[in-house]
Amino acid sequence: MTQTDRTAELRAAVLRQSPRVRAWLEELVRIPSVSDVDGDAPEVRRSAEAVARILAAAGFPEIQIVQEGRGRPAVVARHPPPEGAPTVLLYAHHDVQPPGDGDDWHSPPFEPTERKGRLYGRGAADDKAGIAAHLAAYLAHDGDPPVGVTVFVEGEEESGSDSLPAILERHRDRLRADVIVIADSTNWDIGVPALTTSLRGLVNCLVEVRTLHHGVHSGMWGGVAPDALTTLVRLLATLHDDAGEVAVGGLASATAAALDYPLDRLRAEAALRDGVELIGSGSVVERLWAKPAIAITGVDAPGAAHASNTLLPSARAKISLRLAPGDNAASGYAALTRHLREHVPWGAEVVVDSPDLGEPFAVDAEGPAHDTARTAFADAWDGTEPVDIGVGGSIPFIAELAAAYPEAAILVTGVEDPDTRAHGADESLHLAEFARVCLAETLLLDRLATATGPHRR
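The chain above was modelled as a monomer; its predicted structure follows.
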């Protein structure tokens, strides 16, 4: 059978399985598996149990729900490799971000709803579609793929993957693979596939400034005693220069692919209002993928509507720092902390704590596994070659997987597109693009059987 005939055969198999896969995806979307909640997170447990049941229905012979300490439950399913064939680890996560204000959604966030070729719902793309893509690829091979397949569905990616190191330590041999496919990224555009070759790292922390032992009357003492909120605002303003470039010393920058990102597309996808200028310097993709970025994502202070005329004794903000590929999370946190302490005005007390660190990631996307992925993607997208992209967001666990399995080839693939709105209201999955994702992974499993193995990575 020629490769063209084999591709057509697998395309038909993916199409046959698509109603079943779609039903499973919608079932998972209906479970509000928000991992970043207090307590035992029963909905995350229910989601893990549903994932395990679905994997069993798909035909996986070995399935286990795994949980370490106070971490959220993950699911591991395994299909052993034929003699001499490589093993492929397929990663996704079943936990989701909180839905936010339901009034911002055009349909209920946990009721999957199709509109104009897109499936709307929290997790419909990020990342329950990743689970569905793995199911589609497995089912398209009639539950008997030519490679070993291990599916690892994590349960706390959206809340930091804190228990992942313990899972990797305890289940290292069960998760070992020659190729790791992480279906948690994006494609370049509708109709243009991509392999993600770099992601920025992450430093989240809280900064608190204290100026008074207690609140005092703003009329009696204003003009002499600095209030904490004004002090905090001035401190946060030092994090950028007038052009919006990050002004924290000691942070690294990298290089980005020479891809053109049209400004009209950027403004639309970033939801910029008319007249708002871009910040930073360099090309758009350099600013998005290869340079540090800082945002203030929250402030603790009295609400404006009911604020009294009081000088605040303390104020606090959450800072989100994205690190360029090649940087280091610990050194990035140290640089940010040093900057805040050196630039706090008026001698105020400053406390920086609660760090949440994630390492950046970059891969040299060469070798048999990446070459095979590129041909599989091109065939699934009817001849459109995939592009190598960076992503400004962070997936810190990839660095942990790379450290645990240094000999494995890591492929970061995408179920999302520029209008997915992951983490936001009206998150959605482009269904025609998702069909291509499913076919691409099906072709990848088929072709990795001969393209790679224990000595061909």
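The longest strand covers residues 201-210.
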